Amino acid sequence: MLGNIEIKWIYDILALEELRSFTLASERRNISQSSFSRRVQALESAVGFDIFNRGSTPLLLTSEGKNFIVYARNLIDDMDFQINNIKGVNNIKQRINIAAAHSLAVFVLPEFISEFSGKKDNIFFVESINVDEAVYNLKEGRCDFILSFSNEELMSFPFLHHEVFQTQLHLVSPCHTNGEPIYDVSDENIPLMKYADESYMGRQVNQLLTRESALSFSLSFVSSMSDVLKMMIMKGNGVGWLPDYSIAQELESGSLSVMDPSLSIRMSVYVYRTSARLNLSSERFWQQMKSRTSLF
Asked: Are strands 94-100 and 145-149 parallel, antiparallel or unpaired?
């Protein structure tokens, strides 16, 4: 039955997944809505499961559809790439779509991408978004990889994961020009530059603060982005928890100081993907991420 699948049906569902409207997708595909609907149904019949949940508004992918849409997108990408290779067209590049937590996108991901830069047949599309939104994008088949922190939901089928490195959130203080910390953990009402509660790092810090009730902080600034908190701390506005990969140079130069190592929070960083086959470039990137040695 799978031999009866027509390539145009794959393009149909990709349009429908993007637009989430039979009317808009049929217009893009330049056929009547009734014919478009029959083609989608024919594909679903061929694969043996519903790709879309038609009872939802807006239109949603089924659990099987989420996995299939990744396969479909990469199938078309691979086919176009290989056909152009056969034709001698070598200016076609495959997409590698990555969603990453803000701090990892700024401080870590560029190094990973530069390690892969010798490959000229790909182009990276990177989106820096909050962790919850990144997870949603992977589940919906809208990205190939997530670079993020521990997430139980992504630790089992239909997802794959690999631990890339371990890191720590350090409570740091800005320092005087002589290298002495401006603040001490024994001080009263220390100004705190804090992660937003809904962020992953915010949740980790909140758990520690609940345990360490003797600490005395005065909340002064809130952001979900490590680089913003870092700038506020560097300007002497207060203290806060920052990931070690973002402050290595500042710790070495003495412009920041770890206030109390016992208050550091250990975290693991993972790369996640779905189990569906990705395009050739994305599969190579996955293998590189699995074989690389930690930077930190």
From this structure: parallel
Total-model pTM: 0.75
Domains and CATH numbers, the chain: 2-70 (1.10.10.10), 91-166+269-291 (3.40.190.10), 167-266 (3.40.190.10)
pLDDT bin (cut points 50, 70, 90) of residue 89 is low
> Which pLDDT tens digit goes with each residue over 128-180?
877 778 888 888 777 889 999 998 888 988 889 999 999 999 999 999 988 89
